[in-house]
Design goal:
By secondary structure, the protein is of the alpha/beta class. The protein has 13 helices and 17 strands. Strands 6-9-7-8-10 form a 5-stranded mixed barrel. The protein has a 4-stranded mixed beta sheet with strand order 12-14-16-17, with no helix packed on it. α3 crosses α6.
């Protein structure tokens, strides 16, 4: 009955110039030797079989994902348009239920770094069991290690059993002071790892997500194009989880990072004694806390600190590491002939 839904869309622009529309971050070896999409599917081994793993992506990436992930063609679900996570997950869950009336679904993203695959599977198994036993939508919360302002937070409520709690409230991307207060109150990061039965998800969507619910009849007649044409883009967090009273949280017991910016590499890759992360050919001398990535030519750093230096796809990027989160503003400012990278 168990199915996995892997969200593998997105352009990963915050990893420019390494990430491109044809090779976004989920197809890059950002946290290790394999791509994060491949690692995501491998991580499910022993929990959910490949023939019950569905991947949602756009038409541009679908062929490469199928080739890399070695999944049946019918398991690659091609979005007619990008409409955020709620329509994608509702469609994929509908598809799982179409193939298996009693489907239980584990939803995950294709661009995470996970430090302990076995612990990930134990947590995912617990989330799926909680979804079934308590008939709830389940989110996995991670214990925060820093007052991260780019994540959502979950405030746990009353216990459901020894491992699961209700959700008192969500807080989406708080400022640093609020994040510290949330951490002190025992809040968890909202990882984006979800579990539910298909039946329960679709019932909750009908009750709480009008942006998508009115389009479900299109799925009933197999008209995916119309479904995506008529839905209002909205995330599953805002469109459903923050509105539903049937949400539970279980605590994740594994190292996790969504590898959202260049600066995240300092958390998921080995560092030298000076705190530098170096990928590719580079010589770093009397420098510290730098991130260096070279796809081709040698890079030499001397007497600097806290820099991101990237050489990839005919472009060179140099910026303070603290500016990594503002990559979108940089890309918006670049002339198209520099910003746009084509094969």
């Amino acid at each position: 009955m168990r199915w996995a839904v892997l969200l593998a869309g997105g352009s990963g622009t915050r990893f420019w110039p390494l990430s491109t529309p044809d090779t976004p971050k989920q197809l890059l070896p950002l946290s290790g030797s394999g791509t994060s999409a491949e690692e995501s599917v491998e991580r499910l081994t022993g929990l959910i079989p490949r023939d019950r793993t569905l991947v949602v992506a756009g038409a541009r990436l679908a062929p490469r994902l199928q080739e890399r992930l070695k999944l049946p063609a019918a398991n690659i679900l091609i979005e007619p348009r990008a409409a955020s996570t709620a329509p994608a997950l509702i469609w994929a869950t509908w598809e799982a239920q179409r193939r298996d009336a009693d489907a239980e679904v584990l939803s995950l993203h294709a661009d995470w770094a996970v430090g302990d695959a076995a612990a990930f599977r134990r947590t995912a198994d617990m989330a799926l069991a909680t979804a079934r036993q308590h008939d709830r939508l389940v989110t996995v919360g991670m214990v925060p290690s820093r007052p991260e302002t780019g994540y959502g937070y979950i405030v746990p409520g009353a216990p459901l059993d020894d491992t699961a709690r209700t959700v008192a409230r969500f807080s989406e991307k708080p400022d640093a002071a609020t994040a510290l207060d949330l951490m002190a109150a025992g809040a968890l990061w909202n990882s984006g790892l979800f579990a539910w039965t298909a039946r329960r998800l679709l019932e909750e969507v009908e009750a709480h997500t009008p942006e998508v619910a009115h389009c479900i009849p299109a799925l009933r007649v197999g008209d995916v194009e119309r479904f995506f044409r008529e839905v209002t883009p909205i995330s599953i967090d805002i469109g459903l989880l923050e509105r539903s009273g049937a949400v539970a949280v279980v605590r994740g017991a594994f190292a996790w990072d969504d590898v959202g910016t260049w600066q995240a590499l300092t958390r998921v890759r080995p560092k030298d004694p000076k705190g530098n992360v170096v990928v590719g050919e580079a010589f770093v001398h009397e420098s510290q806390d730098c991130i260096v990535w070279s796809d081709r030519d040698p890079i030499v750093l001397h007497g600097v600190q806290d820099l991101v230096v990237v050489q990839a796809n005919g472009r060179i990027l140099v910026m303070p590491a603290e500016r990594a989160a503002g990559m979108k503003h940089l890309l918006d400012a670049l002339p198209p002939e520099i910003r746009d990278i084509t094969p």
